[in-house]
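ok so i was messing around last nite and threw this chain in just to see what happens. nothing serious, just curious
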Amino acid sequence: SLRSDALPLERPLYQHQERAIRKAVLHNRNIVVATGTGSGKTEAFLVPILNHLFLEEDDGRLAAGVRALLLYPMNALANDQMARLRELLKNYPGITFGRYTGETESEDAKAIEKYRKMYYREPYPNELISRGQMRDRPPHILLTNYAMLEYLLLRPDDHVFFDGQHAGRWRFLVIDEAHVYTGAKGIEMAMLLRRLKDRVVKGKAEGLQCIVTSATLATGEGGFPEVARFARQLV
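result:
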């Protein structure tokens, strides 16, 4: 059902993709994927996330609620990932996804009108396009940016993502373009993520599996310990 240009099933994985997926799926490790632009970092976190959702579906536990948060430093990157998910999951309506940023309309009617103007078609059933839709039925995969995550944690209207009947199923936290979180911004981000973990897994170290990606963090194996230390401090 997933067969598409977004994830060609006949394409072999690169070695770094396979190593990342095995560490994440088989050993439940937190990982850093530090490889060049266009080298397939997305597969390294999408495959473990989809695998987890498929297992929940097999067990009859795939109800509404966030399982994976994909965090981006800017809306353009979140929009690119939405296009990828749209193509990947169009034939698999059981897995829902949504982008919650400052660009996301609150009301369904406005969101649908905006969507039609942008894409000249109707949204797929599993693509939640308004804040109202996501509050009623939180998506399995939620995309946002770090500034909006701050608002989500504060606003009572958005508590459904973190508390109540649809919460309690969080599993993955993906930080894309992690190299931008240095200095004061890095400190703010680290504190924000600690607040998130306190909220959704009560601060348990093993509660959220963290995947950090960047094209520019590592310059060779000699820098791996420093990269791991950076990621550990961040998440």
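not much to say yet. DSSP finds eight helices and seven strands in the chain.
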